[in-house]
Design brief:
Helix content is 51%, strand content 15%. It is an alpha+beta fold and 330 residues long. It folds into two domains: 3-156 and 303-320, Porin chaperone SurA, peptide-binding domain (Triger factor/SurA peptide-binding fold, Orthogonal Bundle); 181-279, Chitinase A, domain 3 (Roll), CATH 3.10.50.40. It has a four-stranded antiparallel sheet. It has a three-stranded antiparallel sheet with strand order 2-1-9. A hairpin with a 2-residue loop joins strand 1 and strand 2 (42-45). Helix 1 (3-16) packs antiparallel against helix 3, helix 3 crosses helix 6 (134-154) and helix 7 (163-172) packs across helix 11 (285-315).
Length: 330
């Protein structure tokens, strides 16, 4: 039986019958048993599945598990369990190829994570909220780094998109070139989590002052921003009024081009600059060439990754251990 069929069968049974929720040693209830699947003998832990499920729910406001539609619960568990199985398959393939993540690299990943918080106590509190400690989180970071390096080295670095392919796609999809009013911005994001409101605001104001005094925006973004855009000097590309967070959008379409300001959103404080604004119109090929090349590269890479996972599924032994006796609620 292939993986999708196995997971679907397990979840169908899971959702059909109620049971008693498992508990950990402290007596607190948890969603899943200790082991939910095995991939070529390696265990997929219920705690890892619950972590992924709860992260998804946190993004939509932390609704109560029992209040969710059964169909959504099933889709959510199916998606997260499949992702964990796929990740483990690739991790095993990377290990078989001789790839390793050094202790130094794992420690560096952990240090990057630590910098998201004002101090170690705040970091530990967040890890505890996710039922993790430093050692377990470090192992998750190590695994994810190994998988990402394998995908980067075996797939992404080998994908090539020619100029002819880009021009052909550009000519074949004129509807993609139309755009509404847009603004291009760059930002330095100071996340509020792990800091008091006052600490986050003061850091944002300090960075804003440094930009206004002439320090290089891109360098400050690379050094201080907690958003992935920091690696691009803070560049957020073009955004529409609807695609940006409301407070950020208001500033992006009201600040004069070239000016900087400080904006508070649900993510934290954004030191932002409007670098360009355009009325409704049409992109030229030169406008979209970098993004188009990246999009086509990503499309090719996604197809290669999907083919890799399918090959690994076909030759692997995957056991889904969730039974109808587990009740999918806290």
């Amino acid at each position: 039986m292939k993986l999708p069929d196995m997971v679907a069968a397990a979840l169908a049974a899971l959702l059909a019958v109620a049971g008693v929720a498992a508990q950990d040693g402290s007596g607190s209830e948890r969603l899943f048993p200790d082991v939910v699947a095995r991939v070529n003998g390696a265990e997929i832990r219920g705690g890892d599945l619950e972590l992924e499920v709860r992260r998804e729910l946190a993004a939509i406001g932390d609704p109560e598990w029992q209040d969710l539609r059964p169909e959504y619960r099933g889709e959510l568990v199916l998606g997260k369990l499949t992702a964990l199985v796929n990740t483990e398959l690739i991790r095993q393939e990377a290990a078989a190829a001789g790839m390793r993540v050094s202790e130094e690299d794992a420690a560096a990943e952990m240090e990057t994570f630590r910098k998201l918080f004002k101090d170690d106590a705040a970091m530990d509190a967040e890890l505890a909220r996710q039922n993790l400690d430093r050692a377990s989180h470090k192992e998750i970071l190590r695994r994810n780094l190994l998988v990402s390096r394998y995908i980067e080295g075996t797939i992404h670095k080998k994908v090539v998109v020619s100029e002819a392919e880009m021009r052909e796609h550009f000519a074949a999809h004129p509807e993609e070139l139309e755009h509404p009013e847009i603004a291009r911005t760059r930002q330095i994001l100071v996340r509020a989590e792990g800091r008091t409101e006052e600490e986050a605001r003061r850091l944002g104001e300090s960075l804003l002052d440094r930009v206004r005094r002439g320090e290089d925006f891109a360098r400050l973004a690379a050094e201080h921003s907690t958003d992935p855009s920091g690696a691009r000097g803070g560049d957020m590309g073009y955004g529409t009024r609807e695609s940006l967070l409301p407070e950020y959008s208001e500033a992006a379409f009201s600040l004069p081009v070239g000016e900087v300001g400080l904006v508070r959103t649900r993510l934290g404080y954004h030191v932002m600059e409007v670098t360009e604004r355009r009325p409704r119109g049409r992109f030229s090929y030169d406008d979209v060439r970098p993004q188009l090349g990246e999009r086509l590269r990503q499309f090719k890479a996604d197809n290669e990754l999907q083919a890799l996972v399918e090959r690994l599924r076909e030759k692997g032994k995957i056991e889904i251990l969730l039974s109808a006796r587990e009740l999918l609620r806290p």
